[in-house]
Amino acid sequence: MTTLIPGNRDLAFLKEVGEVDCIINVEHMKLSDEQIVGEVALGNKTLFASIVDRYQEKLLRYATYLVHDPDEAQDVVQDSFISAYKNLNGFRTDKKFSSWIYRIVHNTALNSIRNRWRFLPMLPDFDWPSGQDLEEEMIDKEKVKMVSDCLGSLKVKYAEPLALYYLEEKTYREISDILRIPEGTVAIRISRAKKLMKEICKNQ
């Protein structure tokens, strides 16, 4: 059974992708994202549910990094899935679907922030151990939550590439595609973000 993001307001969308008891063929599970999108574009609309299954948890986590509100993040993700579904004809199957869908979430989240006049909140205090290597901490599973919380104190333009690289495990090329900035700029922002993170966490 496929679980879509709760509270989806687009009933037509839910009916088309099969909200309840959508059975995904085992063979379909072996398909790449791009192959699935191609099938959906050809008329196999219920297959989009497998895309939702693959991405909803990752995208919800990513949206939460950006808007820092679980309910708002759910709205962002469900709106992004609907937007992606309605605009599949604009996706080029020779490109990576993951970069495309992350880009949609990126735009939707920033629009949500602008529309609601929200600012990213400062997060609870915690001590960053002196001499701790940031990169080691970022890949330490026990520290992921602490690090993701600290991201909330950074400006979006620094927090986003850092989260994409370390927490979402995207390459510089993928981040460049998602944020529509040169790879060199990605590298600069990540380097700057790491320095800012250390300073912010020391002062919390």
Automatic annotation (TrEMBL):
Q: Which GO terms describe its biological process?
A: DNA-templated transcription initiation
| Record carries keyword rRNA-binding | no
Instruction: Write one Gene Ontology MF term.
Output: DNA binding
Kindly give the PROSITE patterns that the UniProt entry links to this protein: SIGMA70_ECF (PS01063)
Please report the stretch or stretches of sequence annotated as the RNA polymerase sigma factor 70 region 4 type domain.
147-197
Top-level division of the source organism's lineage: Bacteria
* Keywords carried by this UniProt record: DNA-binding, Sigma factor, Transcription, Transcription regulation
Task: Show the InterPro entries listed in the entry.
Answer: RNA_pol_sigma-70-like, RNA_pol_sigma-70_dom, RNA_pol_sigma70_ECF_CS, RNA_pol_sigma70_r2, RNA_pol_sigma70_r4_t2, RNA_pol_sigma_r2, RNA_pol_sigma_r3/r4-like, WH-like_DNA-bd_sf
* Stretches assigned to the RNA polymerase sigma-70 region domain: 52-118
Q: Which family does it belong to?
A: Belongs to the sigma-70 factor family. ECF subfamily.
**Protein name per its UniProtKB record:** RNA polymerase sigma factor
